[in-house]
Design a protein that fits this description.
This protein is an all-alpha fold. It has one domain. Helices cover about 85% and strands about 0% of the residues. Helix 1 crosses helix 2, helix 1 crosses helix 4 and helix 2 packs antiparallel against helix 3. It is globular, with a radius of gyration of 16 Å. The chain starts with a helix and ends in an 11-residue tail after the last helix.
Length: about 140
């Protein structure tokens, strides 16, 4: 689980480069693919070491996708920026809570691998949808 957080730190170190390379659209899509890879490794990895790698990929991917969504939330209603960010945070936490509830029920039934696989597919669809809707700005990397 620690490597999920390490993935976030790696993202923060490379965010400027990745934004220059991928743009916001690419960050959303690649981030979603990293999350999906992490979920699939957690679901189907043949040994515990695969789960460690899965947590790392999920961490990097989460921060790529989350930060893209967060930036969009600050821009969708400039005259009501506080409301937009509050709604974003509310829906994020609601989704996390409902996800934990759903996955907890699936663990009790032995459905964890199929549920994580469906979640992986869902997050790729989400990433593709976000990628299509984002204006696609690319930030040039500063020299140095």
């Amino acid at each position: 689980m620690v490597l999920y957080g390490v993935g976030g730190l790696v993202y923060s170190l490379l965010a400027r480069r990745w934004l220059a390379l991928l743009g916001e659209r690419g960050l959303a899509l690649v981030g979603a693919c990293f999350i999906a890879a992490g979920l699939l490794l957690l679901a189907w990895g043949p040994a515990a070491a695969w789960a460690v790698l899965g947590c790392f990929f999920a961490g990097v991917g989460f921060y790529m996708l989350h930060n893209t969504l967060q930036v969009q939330a600050t821009q969708m209603a400039p005259e009501a920026r506080g409301t937009a960010v509050t709604l974003f945070a509310c829906l994020l936490f609601l989704g996390q809570s409902l996800g934990v509830l759903a996955v907890a029920a699936s663990v009790d039934r032995g459905w964890i691998a199929p549920v994580f696989s469906v979640a992986a597919l869902g997050v790729v669809v989400l990433g593709a949808m976000v990628s299509r809707q984002v204006k696609g700005r690319v930030v040039p990397m500063a020299a140095g």
